[in-house]
Structure formats: structure tokens, C-alpha cells
Amino acid sequence: MNRRLLLSAAVAVAATVAGGYTLMGRKSQDAAAPADAGDPVAALKQMKLPDLAGASHSLDGWKGQPIVVNFWATWCAPCVKEMPALDALQKKYPNVRFVGFGVDTAANMQKFVEKVQVSYPLWVIGAGAIDTLRKLGNPSGGLPFTIVFNADGSINRKILGEVQPDDLDRTLAALKA
Predict the structure, then answer these.
(1) Fewer CB atoms inside 10 A, N or C side of the chain?
(2) Side-chain-side CA neighbours of residue 131 (13 Å)
(3) What is the pLDDT along the chain (177 residues), one digit of tens a residue?
(4) In what residue span(s) does the Thioredoxin domain sit (predicted)?
(5) Cα–Cα distance, 100 to 86 (Å, whole number)
(6) Alpha-carbon distance 63 to 30, whole Å?
């Protein structure tokens, strides 16, 4: 069974890469960081990413608010496993903005949310995000990867791997809105 899951994940990654990093019918450079990407955190905040309906968003729209950004993929078992905990924490902390950045295709994500729904928004960053993850301090580009931002825009912490709900709860309780 584990071999089948690994093979499925590898096929999904390969299909996404072979598909030319398209999202919602556009090449991934539409969602790329601005030309001045010397600061990877600033570049992340300025990225314009589509939601599952195709509307464009950026983290800059949430200035002055604490934010939890969770990088995930439909084929990533730990990502899927942590989603209910993230959803519960989002409901517990309405002053904290949560968003899931899908390192996947919009089509895969749309099929996924028919089965697993969350109350926080999901934006499509696509498979090209691995380079972004590395620039943000995740050298392996592994998933899931979560970044907690303070209300002033600074990084409070980074979590590589599945979040531990009690640990993240303590972090969020200490954030100032």
C-alpha cells in the first residue's frame, strides 16, 4: 500500500512538472514573484495567486493581521492529515488569517475540496513553488511547510512537516492581532 501511495505521488508530481507548470490555463510565471525578488518573504507577500475560482489574491491584502500560510499538495499524505487541525485552529482564532498554498494544479485541488473541505481559502501556487520554498528556508522543498507571520509582517516561526496542533495552538494564542 505504501509503495502504491509513493508511486501515485511520484506520478502526480511528474504530471504536474510535465504539464509545464500551468495553473488555471496560464503559465506559472503569472504567479511568479515580482521582478525584485531579493527578499523572498517580500516576494511571497506580493505574489498574485489564483484561488479555486480564478480570482487573484496576495498576502499583501492582509497587512496588519497575523497570517498562517500552509504549503500543501493533494498528493501529500501529511498535508491532508493536518488540514482538519488547521481548519479547527482557524475557527478558534478568527483574528488570524489562514491560507493554503496548493503546490499542485487547480484541477487537482478542485477535485480534492469536493471530498475534504476547509473553511480557509486555498490559493494555487503550482509545482514551481519548490524553488520558493527553498528560498523561504526549506532547503529540501518538503511538504507540508507552514509559516506563521506576526501582525507586523515578520515571521514568527516556520514549521517543516506536519503541524502539531497543540504546539501551533500555543503559537497562535501568543500572537497579537
Answers:
(1) N
(2) 10
(3) 444 333 333 333 333 333 333 223 333 333 444 444 489 999 999 999 999 999 999 999 999 999 999 999 999 999 999 999 999 999 999 999 999 999 999 999 999 999 999 999 999 999 889 999 999 999 999 999 999 999 999 999 999 999 999 999 999 999 975
(4) 22-177
(5) 10
(6) 22
Q: How far is CA 164 from CA 104, 115, 126, 167, in A?
A: 23, 23, 25, 5
pTM of the model: 0.80
Q: And the C-alpha cell for 114?
A: 469536493
Q: Is the peptide bond before 144 cis (omega within 30 degrees of 0)?
A: yes
Type of residue found at 24: M
Rounded to whole angstroms, what are the CA distances from 169 to 69, 92, 129?
15, 9, 26
Amino acid occupying residue 9: A
